[in-house]
Amino acid sequence: MATIHGIPISIHVSFLLLMLFLGLRTLSSSGPRVALIEQGLVLAVFVCVALHELGHAAAALRHGVPMSGITLYPFGGVARMARRPPQGMVEVVIASAGPAVNLAIAGALFVLSAGEVITPGGAFGLRLLSLLFWANLILAGFNLLPAFPLDGGRILRGLLTIRMGWARATVWAASVGQVAAVLLILVGLMHDVWLVLAGLLVLPAANAELRYALAVRQFANRRVGEVARIELVRLEPAATISEAAELSVATPVADFLIMDGHRPVAYLSAPRLWARVRSDEPGTQPVTAVAEPLATPIPGDTPVEDAIGYFHRGGPETAPVIDDQGNTIGIVAVGDLIRAAQLARHATSRK
Ligand SMILES: [Zn+2]
Predict the structure, then answer these.
(1) Domain with CATH 3.10.580.10 in the chain
(2) What's the topology of domain 224-349?
(3) How far is ligand 1, taken at its centre, from the CA of residue 157, in Å?
(4) Which of 95, 109, 115, 169 has its CA 20 to 30 Å from the CA of residue 218?
């Protein structure tokens, strides 16, 4: 519908259907004036929901997390991030930003009306502001419930991530979310049908997140040493491209690790070597002229999930893997780690 700072914002069709339904119903029962006021009020709440999502988006962009889009539904919105926040604290800030917007709106209405919005009554305009005031408090309060995937659940996960890492934190936050959703349904059965509806919406999302987190944890429990490529031919930096090509033909192992004594200095893959051999350049140059630089060595017992943090955007994409004595046991490419993460995700999304 619109684009703000490159983030596409869309309105779910059910919102327009709800507006139409409410409008026609109130028009026939109470006349055009009440219907118009009701439409205005629904729109005002809708704007508050939109501002809530924009609060998330602004916090995410500030912390360098790209957004893939915002969708607005009748009773809330979803701000989707293109990737997950890098640190637990960043997720806490992004998740808090939405409810903070609603609390700020409620606070502003409270101050502007000199506190009169708390008790609905008196002038007609004030009654409308009072409805808006309570709507914002409910929006903030409901979203702060520690029920994943609501904002409160994300804040909980962010705080847990600082202590126990992302995968375990997600398992915990999603489990708490399941319990909260069931409690919501039980309390709702006794008091309010809306709470039952909210619980029924939250429960499957918490279930899906738990399944995903369990799969990711399984993957995250693997160590870099287990996924490292260890079949490498080791070369000295002075070896020439022709020598590497001859070795490549003579051995079943194709990739090269260039070692200066015990120190790994560069990596040369077979496709890269053969692209060079096929070019017209002479093969007398040292292999270091075509090899790729290496990232910081990663200890083999590092969890695969944490290993992604050793690579920096635009930096080397391959890192040596070392044992606890500092000996090089192989290499790992950032692409291997990302593929493994995507496989874990794919395995869960098909369920
Ligand atoms: Zn939110």
Answers:
(1) 224-349
(2) CBS-domain (3.10.580)
(3) 14
(4) 95
